Amino acid sequence: MTPGTRKSALLAGTILSLSMLAGVASAETTVTMWTFLDPNKTSPREVALKQMIADFEAANPDIKVKVEPQDFAQMPTKFFLGHQTGGNPDIVWIDAKNLSGLDTSGAGANLDELLINQWPQEDKDDYYAKASFDAAMFGGVHTALPLFNGGSMIYYRKDLLKEAGIDPASLTTWDAILEAAKKLTKDNDNDGRVDVWGFGMPLAPLKTESSPVYISLLEQPAALYTGECEIKLSSDLGVKGITYTADLITKHKVTPQDALVINVDDVTDQFIAGRYAISIGSMLRYSVIKGKAAFGADNFDIIKWPSWTGEKPGATPLSGWWVAAWKNSPHLPEAGKFLNYMLGKEGVGLWTTVGGQVPTRKSVLESPDFAGPQYDWVRLMVDAWGQTGYMDPPSCNTRTLQGALNEATARVVLDNLDPVEALKEAEAKFADAQ
Amino acid sequence: MPAGQAVPRGPRTSRFALRPDERRSLGFILPFVLIELALVAGPLALGFYYSFFKVEYFQLTSFRGLDNYWRVITSPMVLGSIGATAIFSIVALGLTLTVGMALAVHLERDSRWNVAVRAVALVPYVISMLVGSLLLRWIFSTDAGFMAVVLGPIGLGDHSVLANPGSAMAALVFNAVWRDSAFAMIVLLAGLKSIPPSLYDAARVDGAGAFYRFRRITLPLMRLSILIAVVRLLIHFVNVLTFSLILTGGGPNGATRTTGLALYELGFVEFKLGDANALAILVFLFNLILVAFNLLLFRERRRAP
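The joint structure predicted for all components is written out below.
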């Protein structure tokens, strides 16, 4: 080797070493997250997530957040299985019905150690729905925290109700809903087929949402569970609820029979398309409906669930999405940082202003940004949860309860089965699922 | 070595020793056997093991022995699903074969038109099952679909196809026939083309009509193709999940809840993985019978002149 080439080799080696050192110095940690949202898409929550990740990465240049979008129905199962096989992401979103899986599978990290213990007390008290904050607390340890408070609600079309002379504020009882639905069911072109149905319900056995039977049963939630994960559905309230639901289809014909196979996605699509004047729907879809409604973004609103007496609103189920970290994550501190951001005031603010969600934090809800009338629906939801909020016991397998009630309704509608017998069948299905 | 000449086998040194040609063959097969073992036999063994336990979120919580099997075979949901699967499989099989045979016979000649029609007939088979079923779901919807337009003139405009047990099952069968007739057509077309045209010519000379030729020449000589199509389609229909999951969700009243969907619900809705694995093992055993039947058919075909 000549002195010249030796010098060149030395120089090249030095450059290589320096660049490797620089590489080490600027090494990034990538935090992976499973969610049903895709930040490359354009729905309000997806836009909010994209902005949240960009803001977080700008503030934490050594951490990258990689989203791996998943099917929402399969995501919890994959995560619990992944705990066994070791292929899990650092962060995962979990729905209300699968929270207990975090404990049973042992996959959920201790969020008290990771986050909550570092929060000042006012931060913990900022969560106005205590049931939601503690829903994934097992053995005194939080394994997930609420990201969106969700639940079912009743949507209505402003223009159609106004045209029919119906005041939405008067829809506080099931009877009032029925009378309104009768007025609102219309065959506009007189071709013998209904163009707008008075009341839409998703009664398919899978991908369910609350039905009148369930809300009726929750008028006395204490009477619903007779023992640990033992349920009594064939009560007076259950019979009243299932008869009412079946009659909407068969006797009053204000709901299409297709409702028996319509799921929560379909009912949202049909409401967006203008096929229902009033409809049950998921509150989490509010922003989606607003973005897509064929009848105008400001031409719909929500009301609280009705009850039989109207003295107070019907039960308001509390569900939604929680976020957890994987116990065996190699990047737990970094995952904790992103969780902290996503769950903090800035994150919750984005979920609400950009993502169109009901905030989980009181401070965000009370900030001047949310004073306008466009957030009346948010205040209505929070008020409803405050009055009659209800959450299924996370320790019971309630995943099939609404499906079993829907099948019971189908038995009454199609087979004319006695409501008590139909509800007993649902009780047996629930018991079998435990 | 000239083409067609047999490969020299070489001597076998002991009972278990492999000849060079056998070693070479094993080299080709072994990777696939290992993949099969890893992806099929491994999970199968694990599923069999899980089927004796109560499994909660993939954790084995208590040993149940054969109790899971007993729970499954006495469960009204599973029994109902077996009935629905039987109706669905038998009706769909009969109609799929009939339509497939009609297409195969009609499109046998390789004219440009027939080749184009064959390609069109294959479209439902090549598109994703999920997309196809979603498409049909909207077509059958009373509110959004055009079934109302079709049924309207006969006074059934308000009839909900998917929300009535009978018509929902018919819709499920329609989905299967619409998609899988093309598969039947391909298998039957292959059988049809293997029949020497001289047999038809001779029959024509003897004055045999089209129906007689079909009954006495086509059907007997296509026996194996038909049986293979029957077994393959039956295995598919017994196991398919997509049609019922997407089209009806198993409703109404569980009328379209097939065994595949019951399995899905047990495993991924109720998370009763012990029960789900017990049912999966029973379905697997039934599949084994069908596969054994399929293998027998192939053996018979090898023996055929």
